[in-house]
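Appendix B, example 12.
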Amino acid sequence: MAFLALGINHKTASVDVRERVAFTPEQMVEALQQLCRVTPTREAAILSTCNRSELYLHQDQAEADAVLAWLANYHRLNLDELKACAYVHVDEQAVRHMMRVASGLDSLVLGEPQILGQMKSAYAVAREAGSVGPLLGRLFQATFSTAKTVRTDTAIGENPVSVAFAAVSLARQIFSNLQRSQALLIGAGETITLVARHLHEQGVKKIVVANRTLERASALAAEFGAQAILLADIPQELHNSDIVISSTASQLPILGKGAVEQALKQRKHKPMFMVDIAVPRDIEPQVGELDDVYLYSVDDLHEVVAENLKSRQGAAQAAEELVAAGTSDFMLRLRELAAVDVLKAYRQNAERIRDEELGKAQRLLANGASAEEALAQLARGLTNKLLHAPSVQLKKLSAEGRVEALGVVQELFALGDGTDNR
């Protein structure tokens, strides 16, 4: 049996590829059930964010080709194109990869905390789909525990560094005084919540939150004294916005070139700063061709992120050591679990022999034999039957030249070197 972690991320694939491999929340349950039905996968979970789409699997064998073929077929991609940017980790490396991802060590922004919540959500959805069993479930729990230790015992998450923070930092470079700027935030999820918090902390007084449902937008807006609108109302609000930051799960662009052109005319070509954090993209790439628009995607945030990461580099090594320890501990426990079935069968066999020999001793007593005679027979019967099968197998293994088996037995039964067993 094998654990696999496979997929693509911001290091191996462009945003154009990542948006085509992304899973929407509505697709998740059906995709997981289909994956387990048509591939050798026994247990599965899918993590899909703007920076990665990864599958965590438990299979009988470390065979990734069938899963990659399914992934390409599901998203209508060319298999060779997918393989060119996909990675596959097996067993201990898969465990280590999951723990590094959950700890923020594999993120675009080193140590960013949102990924742990996203991984917990992936686990919850997989449980809902019925695609997580005992082994993958144990791996997720060990992953969460290790990530928590990394957060508690290192400084990797102390500084406010995230994609959301990077976006606001970039806005601060373009607008010398954010307090005079108005921001339009599209979406109401975790990333946009962080963006709103950072903008609020920078003194932005006017924030508008646009979302598919007014209820979600209103809940977020109330937290920061913002205004809530529907996505359909964006064209009427866009011309008032100096800053536009978008992160939704929409499969189609929300802002097109024409709408932004119209807004620029109303603004008399006053500059607009736009960040599209979503995958698939919320803002048509052609918007970036317009004069007076500064459009950035998640892939454009690398330089800003690099400046904000210096304080976290020192903590990364300590975090890597904790991940290594968490991986070793999980693999040790997994190997211990592998012995459980053998021990269970061994005990059941011993108990069966015990009951048989005890029954014989009781019958001897019932037929008038002395207690000493019955006990002696019980001892002989237990000794002979318990040693019979191991003795036969040891002779067979020795005859076959498998001398290492003799050493294992000596260690198993604490027999020393066989010369002095006192």
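The domain at 2-158 is CATH 3.30.460.30 (Beta Polymerase; domain 2). The mean pLDDT is 90.
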